[in-house]
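agent> fetching stored inputs for the adenosine-5'-diphosphate docking request
agent> found them:
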Amino acid sequence: LSALLAGVPDVRTDAALAGTDPGEGWFAVTDPATGAVLAHVAEHDVTDARVAAAAAATAGRDWARRPNRERSAILHRAHALMMDDHERLATLITAENGKTLADARAEVAYAAEFFRWFAEEAVRPHGSYDPAPAGGVRHLVHRKPIGVAALVTPWNFPAAMATRKIAPALAAGCTVVLKPAEETPLTALAVGAILVEAGVPADAVRIVTTTDAPAVVEALLADEHVRKVSFTGSTQVGRILLHQAADRVLESSMELGGNAPFVVCDDADLDAAVAGALTAKLRGGGQVCVAANRFYVHTDVADAFVQRFGEAIAALNVGHGADDGTDAGPVITPVAAERIEKLVADAVAGGARVAYQAQAPSGAGNWVAPRLLVDVPGDAAIAHEEIFGPVATVRTWSDDDEVVAMANDTEFGLASYVYSRDLQRAIRLGEAFESGMVGVNRGLVSDPAAPFGGVKQSGLGREGATLGIDAFTEVQHLAVAWP
Ligand code: ADP
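agent> prediction call returned; pasting tokens
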């Protein structure tokens, strides 16, 4: 790993490899598949966070004034450098997050694409110039960079959650302070180094690594230089940050938890539905905010779907993400594994049945065996909470209105999925779902060119698409006297 991290600031691999404690000021990053220490990363505190915000503000004065074409060219370079470095970054993601190399490679391409997409958006500002209806005034409306943005990201997509925020911010002319998840700071630091290589001034993207997220993030949101917070993580933490943002009336973007229904109609193409279900459930080991959390299958096809999906789950090869042939890696932490096991145990105690199960390795590592549960009682916690792991639950339905009510019976509204050969029926169901995104005959919704975000308690605002860059700008109106 030391070769993969050569030249990346704030990381020490020497002490980690020697198995010694590097002392004060560093924290360990571990491999979730083995528990082994991979590296040590600098422990930053509240003062460091304030220094970073001030430095980002200073850097922002020059960055915002650069011609859009220049910022765009730098972002294009970042995309190219990330793609050139594809394998190194994928290896880092797998090492600290545990996902399979195939998933990690897909994440690198997805993450890099945000730089290309927003490089293209950077040169397409949209303003307006209009005569006032009453005459005597010309209205000029344009967008300005909002200023320094505090970015807080989770561990499930160590590269993509960072680039989905950094790319539009830089494209808009903002500078940022990024606080990556303590479980996966290595990839974020590697992406930061790539940005510097691409030509981004070092202070325009400051990365503050810490194990004390509550204090460091609170200090950032309270800092006078910070004008925006963009957060991806749990609804619980999102609420805390919204309260803090309220104190300074900070512009806020929140990508929070999900509880996605995956609806299979009686006229669905079952091969496609099973393939989509595997993607929607098992990408990243199910630790994805748009992961399918509740499978609702029409009674007429329930047996066939459960058998095919269940057999595919039981055949999954669970192991170290970097090993050839691995279909599912470990979950992120021992605490996460315990939480998932408790959800399953409670459901089984309430009458659910484990119909299919894959083998998981024993020994060190945060292993959770992929499973498919049937006969899940409607009031079981697993039917309402985000599972965030490789466990699928199936319930049946027989009427379209009934399944819409089941799908919407949650305070979350991030993603939904629907499978039907009748496209009008699928779209009608999709429109009825209270969610920000709907996969129609597709188990994957994310695309940098499309708006990503939730309704209800799944969040505020959208990332990606043109809306993604708007989120880092503010509108200014100039009323110009026109006698
Ligand atoms: P997850 O369940 O995916 O770990 P979290 O919401 O706990 O989601 O974490 C997402 C990000 O929020 C991480 O960077 C984490 O360090 C940070 N975080 C966690 N708790 C707080 C908090 N109280 N205040 C600010 N940031 C926090």
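agent> quick read of the result: The first helix runs from residue 14 to 18.
agent> awaiting further instructions
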